From TrEMBL:
SMART domains: PKS_PP (SM00823)
InterPro entries per UniProt: AA_adenyl_dom, AB_hydrolase_fold, ACP-like_sf, AMP-bd_C, AMP-bd_C_sf, AMP-dep_synth/lig_dom, PKS_PP-bd, PP-bd_ACP
One GO CC term on file: cytoplasm
Alphabetical list of PANTHER family matching this protein: FATTY ACID SYNTHASE (PTHR45527:SF1), NONRIBOSOMAL PEPTIDE SYNTHETASE (PTHR45527)
Assigned keywords, A-Z: Phosphopantetheine, Phosphoprotein
One record GO biological process: secondary metabolite biosynthetic process
Protein name: Amino acid adenylation domain-containing protein
GO molecular function: phosphopantetheine binding
Domain Carrier: start-end pairs: 507-582
Keyword Glycoprotein: no
A Pfam family it matches: AMP-binding
């Protein structure tokens, strides 16, 4: 079965059921089928044929969902761009892949590279009309590539993973880790370039359920709770970082969920325990899986507070195998650490135009002749009950806000900055439990370095999430007994001194500024901050900002808009925003 076969069958069966709810309009299955037919016909008129790759550069909307279905109906492959990546990186990806047609919207159309024809949706959110109402009938094979997802590589050449139709169907039809019903409502929160969107979008659309499209941009925990409540969401996927924030700010509005899935990074056992206690009628699922095995490989139903150090990642889902193997691809005994290899119908074809990388990571499955499996690079062990527990990475990869980052690639980029003689990058846990990247640099001749200029230069070379939150100059990098950089010693420094900033230090004035400075210090793990220090120069990002907003809401009963961090990203600016939202009594 293919995605288009499954969707057409569902649209014929439930034509009047609501398929999509979004700010730019609700769509029944009939309307989604008809609109995607028309857009598919337009794509065909513009030369799109089976096997072509069509780019998508759109905000979350009903128009985006129409575009996804339309591309699939032509037999082509969709490639969704991540708006958080630098513009030049997006253009590089489009050029390298050979995208000739890009579905986009007016505000984003100017970013289209030369040689790429943009099809721009209209002001009312619809698409231009074609000469005919539907494209020619195309027979798609389950092995046809449905989409290309670029992994969260840290440098300017991330790898495009080619996911076939059968992998998506295996994920969402007949799932054994959840039971999907036609009356379910899925929340679409993930960027469409992130592979969690595969579950969020095709889960409902291939099962006759409803897809509720969240507004574009970052949502505060309060925004998220309100969205879940107002749309009667029953299926929700959260990254580990957002899950932890939601637990901290309150779970009352999530009590209508049937399933709460979380993952993308290690889940905190205390947060999991609180969620289990607060949501007795909700099934909490720890979902694990690399992009290369189509969103989920293993899932674990959490039925009680974790009684051990880590929350298990569970067992392989339907249509999937998970082997714990040693260096010679031999099974390791239960309880011993090995690398997790994922096999079955979810395995991708490989990396687009990267045969050498494909050969390294996609290898022959010794337990299924003719099949392949994916070497995840994750170290795991099998527990006595048969479930799998994540232990760590066997290479230099770390997870930062749900994205995979190669430390060696970050180190190479930092070391290439002017004036830098040596560099090391580590992932640190901040006092609030988040992961952040910190780079330690040694200057040539031990002369002073501008860490601000280093971070600015790195933004031109690295994806945003791969730019270190802090760059710290040290006289020398510590070494282990065998002469290697002692990253454990570097990572142990959880609280850092105030770094090089544009602002001259000014102590906080008044209780409110002092409170905000202390909150920033707690969440960023930096001491000695001033009232005029820039949040983003300090390595702050949206996940930290919404957590600070939640703390201020709990303390003062006033919710500040996330835009406050962009209007004036300083403690003084945030204090003004809080004053304006609540009146002068806040400072009194």
């Amino acid at each position: 079965m293919t995605i288009d076969d499954a969707f057409r069958a569902r649209a014929a069966r439930d034509p009047d059921r609501i398929a999509v709810r979004a700010a730019d309009g609700d769509l029944t299955y009939r309307a989604l089928d008809e609109r995607s037919d028309r857009l598919a016909a337009l794509l065909w008129e513009r030369g799109v044929r089976p096997g072509a790759i069509v780019g998508l550069h759109l905000h979350r909307s009903a128009a985006l969902v129409v575009a996804l279905v339309a591309v699939i109906k032509t037999g082509a492959t969709y490639l969704a761009l991540d708006r958080r990546q630098p513009v030049e990186l997006r253009r590089t990806i489009l050029g390298a892949v050979g995208v000739e047609v890009l579905l986009t919207e007016p505000a984003l159309a100017p970013e289209s590279p030369d040689g790429c024809t943009p099809i721009v949706r209209t002001a009312d959110g619809s698409w231009p009309e074609p000469a005919r109402a539907a494209p020619p009938e195309v027979r798609t094979d389950p092995a046809t590539v449905a989409y290309v997802a670029f992994t969260s590589g840290s440098t300017d050449r991330p790898k495009g993973v080619c996911i076939p139709h059968r992998a998506v169907v295996r994920l969402v039809i007949g799932s054994d880790f959840v039971t999907i019903r036609p009356d379910d409502v899925f929340a679409m929160l993930a960027p469409v370039a992130f592979d969690a969107s595969t579950w969020e979008i095709w889960g409902p659309l291939l099962n006759g359920a409803t897809l509720a499209v969240a507004p574009s941009g970052d949502l505060t925990p309060g925004d998220l709770s309100a969205f879940v409540r107002s749309h009667d969401v029953t299926m929700l996927w959260l990254t580990a970082g957002l899950f932890h924030q939601v637990v901290e700010t309150g779970l009352a509005d999530l009590r209508g969920l049937r399933y709460l899935l979380a993952g993308g990074d290690v889940l905190s056992p205390p947060h999991v325990a609180r969620a289990v206690a607060a949501l007795p009628r909700t099934v909490l699922v720890n979902g694990y899986g690399p992009t290369e095995n189509t969103t989920f490989t293993c899932c674990h139903h959490v039925t009680s507070a974790p009684d051990h150090r880590n929350v298990p990642i569970g067992r392989p889902i339907r249509g999937t195998t998970a082997y714990v193997l040693g260096d010679r691809l031999q099974p390791v005994p239960q309880g011993e650490i090995g690398e997790l290899y994922a096999g079955g119908e979810g395995v991708a074809h490989g990396y687009l135009d990267r045969p050498a990388f494909t050969a390294i990571r996609f290898v022959a499955d010794p337990f299924a002749p003719g099949a392949r499996m994916y070497a995840t690079g994750d170290l795991v062990r099998q527990l006595p009950g048969g479930e799998i527990e994540f232990v760590g990475r066997r290479d230099g990869q770390v997870k930062i806000r749900g994205f995979r980052v190669e430390l060696t690639e970050v180190e190479s980029a930092v070391a290439a900055m002017p004036g830098v003689a040596d560099a090391a990058a580590v992932a640190q846990r901040t006092p609030s439990g988040d992961s952040r990247l910190v780079a330690f640099v040694v200057a040539r001749g031990n002369s002073p370095l501008s860490t601000l200029e280093i971070r600015a230069g790195l933004r031109q070379r690295l994806a945003e999430y791969a730019v270190p939150s802090l760059v710290i100059q040290v006289p020398v990098l510590p070494l282990t007994a065998n002469g290697k950089v002692d990253r454990s010693a570097l990572a142990a420094h959880a609280v850092q001194p105030r770094p090089d900033l544009n602002a001259v230090y000014r102590p906080p004035a008044g209780d409110l500024e002092s409170t905000i400075v202390q909150l920033w210090a707690d969440h960023l793990g930096i001491e000695g901050l001033g009232a005029d220090d820039d949040f983003f120069e300090l390595g702050g990002h949206s996940l930290v900002s919404v957590r600070i907003i939640a703390d201020l809401l709990q303390r003062y009963g006033v919710e500040v808009s996330p835009l406050a961090f962009y209007i004036d990203p300083t403690p003084a600016g945030l204090a003004k925003a809080l004053d304006q939202a609540a009146g002068p009594e806040v400072t009194g």
